[in-house]
Amino acid sequence: MGNHSNKKSFSVALSVVLASTSLLAACSKENTGAKEAPKSSGAVVTEAGKYPISTQETLTSWEQMDTNLTTFFTNLSESPFGKQLEKETGVKVKYTHPADGQSKEQFNLLIASNNLPDVIEYNWNTSYPGGPEKAIADKVILPLNDLIDKNAPNLKKLLQQDKELDKMLKTDSGKYYVFPMIRPDNGLVFRGPMIRKDWLDELKLGVPTTIDEWYIVLKAFKEQKGASAPLTAQYSNELNIQDAFIGAYKTANRYYIDDQGKVKFGPIDPQFKDALVLLRKWYAEGLIDKDFALNTDSKALDNKMMSDSSGATVGLLSGGMGRWMETGKKKNPQFQLVGAPYPTLKKGERAFIGQRDFKYNPAASKAVTGAVKNPELAVKWLDYAFSEKGSMLFNFGTEGESYTINNGAPQFSEKITKNEKYNLQQMVSQYTKPNGPFLGNSAKSFNTFKEQDEAVKVWGETDAVKHVLPLFITPTVEESKEVAKLNTAITSYKEEMFVKFVMGKEPIEKFDEYTNRIKEMGIDKVTKIYQDALDRYNKR
């Protein structure tokens, strides 16, 4: 657990981290024109920033439960983390969790039910029709400006210190609408191409960096290692290779920002056709998993990677590479995965785009709903995650149980890292909150292999920071309605044709016909809306 001086030095160090974790301009006190928050139904005598809070009230929260935690519990309140959070904040919370894979459907039903909990953790930017401005106008969620100013000193301090974060958390009209998930600077890159290094060594091949080198490697995996699906990936509404391979052609399988700062829809770029020709060729030669469209859950991908059917994929750092290395080495001590660079067409070229998140992750942030009876209590409870002590609980759990302080730095205990039955992610999920509205700590790492540390560096060598379109830009209510109306049909048709082109069910000569159809469906309207929203965001 470390001695007193270690604890003290860590406390000072964390205070510095909290004060410098890239956080922005003062909470706006401008009149946003939003309705006032509902009056509290009961007094909370504890002043803002002081815990535990003195209250007899119970809050309700709707949020996705980490899939690793479902191994042990059916509800977050039953976990060591849930119990410790209640103890430290003084607030009892009743949680409701949507079933895994059904979040979208159950979120829509929840909104339609008119029976909302106090807080909801979800992506309010992309999942509510009309976005956060509309959700506020509909009184589904509350504007948080005054509530943060008076009841959330920890988040308020972060916003005052980091103008970039402050800009991310507001709508164009200046309304704060969520308590954010904030990634640390070293937690922005966590997915990329990975490949069986033990196979490469056996075949005397290097880690591929170009499209041509990948072709040679995948062919060798198929012909010399007997891999039935040399390159595989999970399929969730689209082939989840992010921008690997496609990005080599200086485009993306999504909306992106080009070198001139213009929003583009990659799947209708002329060069996207070249990417499809490549994937079609690889598929026809058996280099891409023939059943890729059936890999709709992580278990299918696990089976391919663990059965030696596949030697390469695009996956997560800990939930993929770390987990597979742990399992694979038990069966075969030589099993080794390494991160490969996002491939380019020319040797030495810098990748056009890759996976890189922003510090604000809207997908796991919490809004306070219009149904809340005591908004001050909800906001004080949420603000705990941004305090020094709260950040430690959310990131590392309970000192002496899930982590210790060594030389002033937190480290997961052997109870977490060396459990014989469960992997690191499963153990950590019981004591912390892997995703959610809290301040991420750069000292936190799920990496158990040096290959993971090296992969992050390799995957970070892209120009993604220039080309990834932020998910937190906020179209106006009218713009959002238009996007919602057009985008569903466009993306559905795009994906249908993507699969058909890759599998050879449609001739590549139909690409022009396909792009014309997407233009007729209104893609230019959508890109203009995103462009206008991006321009407004850049001017905030």
Walk me through the structure.
With 540 residues, the protein is of the alpha+beta class. The chain has three domains: 4-29 and 51-185 and 361-440, Periplasmic binding protein-like II (D-Maltodextrin-Binding Protein, domain 2, 3-Layer(aba) Sandwich); 191-356 and 451-467, Periplasmic binding protein-like II (D-Maltodextrin-Binding Protein, domain 2); 477-538. The chain is 41% helix and 10% strand. It contains 21 helices and twelve strands. The chain has helices spanning 4-20, 80-89, 103-113, 131-137, 145-151, 153-161, 163-168, 197-202, 211-225, 270-284, 298-306, 317-331, 375-383, 388-396, 414-417, 424-431, 450-459, 464-467, 477-503, 511-520, 523-538; strands at residues 58-62, 92-96, 119-121, 179-182, 191-196, 255-257, 263-265, 312-316, 337-339, 360-368, 403-406, 409-412. It has a five-stranded mixed β-sheet, covered by helices on one side. It has a three-stranded antiparallel β-sheet with strand order 8-5-9. Strands 6-7 form a two-stranded antiparallel sheet. α10 runs parallel beside α19 and α19 packs across α21 (523-538). It is globular and about 70 Å long. The chain starts with a helix and ends with a helix.
